[in-house]
Amino acid sequence: MKQIILLIFIFSNVNAYEFKLNKKDLDFIYSSKKRNFIVNRLNKYQSIKKKVVDYTLIRKLSHINLFLNKILPANDIKTKSTLDHWATPKEFLIEGYGDCEDYAIAKYFTLIELGIKKENMYFAVVDVKGAKNTHMILLYVEDKNKSPLVLDNLSFKVIPLSKRKKLIPKFAFNETNAYKFTHDKFTQKINIHWGKENKWEKLLKRVYKLKE
Length: 212
Hints:
Layout: H1 2-8, H2 23-31, H3 35-52, H4 57-69, E1 72-73, H5 76-79, H6 89-95, E2 97-98, H7 100-113, E3 121-128, E4 135-140, E5 149-152, E6 155-160, E7 167-173, E8 178-181, E9 186-189, H8 199-209
Parallel strand pairs: 1-2
Antiparallel strand pairs: 3-4, 3-7, 4-5, 5-6, 7-8, 8-9
Helix pairs in contact: 3-4, 4-7, 6-7
């Protein structure tokens, strides 16, 4: 059965990123008491990617945002030994829960698999009116002088940031650049000072090099 599942999870593409389970992942899944739930979730994930691969841009963004938003929210402090753990897409989908950055990360790499260019997507750190903690969303940016589209685990709709007035922009970044931005456009390039640990570089290494 392991061999069958492994074949199902090989999703060929020409992008640098590919969601592909390895032996360690399979061993964990089949030893888990929640094995059936995990396998069901992963099979549905593969199915939605195949379904939307030829969809128009907005339909593709909307379907992926909707699907991944169905995964349960959870705070890092309740689920990890260290605060603010950034999960890889495999961790997020296998574990079946995560917080705001985990949703954004999973959406980013899923959309890369589906042919969306990396340079058009930015992780954005925002404040939410009435909330104590900062929040992370994923932006699709076609033109830096126009309001980007928002993929957010707090909303099932993919709409322009200009219509999300409760989100207060702080900064945005991807694998190439970082910017300050407003509801209507990106304003200036910046350098992000990550402090003691660069969680972004650590995540990229885990995804691209270590295949975690």
